[in-house]
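Readers of this paper often ask what the protein records in our data store actually look like. Such a record has a labelled line for the sequence and another for the backbone structure tokens. The tokens are whole numbers drawn from a learned vocabulary of local backbone shapes. We quote a single record here, exactly as it is kept in our systems:
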Amino acid sequence: MSNYSNTQEKLSRDDMAQTVAADIPSGAFVNLGIGQPTNVSNFLTSEQGVTLHTENGMLGMGPVATGDDIDEDLINAGKIPVTELPGASFFHHADSFAMMRGGHLDVCVLGAFQVSEAGDLANWHTGAEGAIPAVGGAMDLAIGAKQTWVMMSLFTKTGESKLVEALSYPVTGLGCVSRIYTEVAIFELRGRKVFVRSSHGISFEELQSKLPVELTKA
């Protein structure tokens, strides 16, 4: 029985973040990458019991801080002010990376420039002349987490697919991505096959015509 579904509207960034948040298992330890993934923290519920980790040395991060809750000394790895939940703890940067490299994170959610059908990830450099490479902790997260999910727009500004047969940008991690959330579709990657869990504002057939990889309804 197929689990594929279709809706008439594209997902907004908040819709994507809410979908990711709902998919995170209860009790999971999770790292949210810089950019779109940061927004996921605003949609996690206390009932889920999810503990957020940030590589600059914090466990128990809460939603993004606003207004009077902003403390410039309390930021995530993207320098965005955040809140702390009861029981939050702080530690050395090296200890934070030991958690990442040691396989202690259940899920990490990252942005991407490209993802291949095999689950290879490129998210730190496009190879453009003059661009500043900024891998940060992405390599450690992509390979160290038990599951690596990506949030990204599916197409570039010029219309090229970011879901590709093989990466053309510098590699962050090989075979690490298992799920991709975009504004027009949510994908599962399993055994070099790309399954479409849902499409939004586009039919499955039109989606297939725009992508260079073979798709299968989940």
Remarks:
- The longest helix spans residues 13-23.
- The chain has a mean pLDDT of 95.
- The first strand starts at residue 5 and ends at 7.
- The chain has four helices and 14 strands.
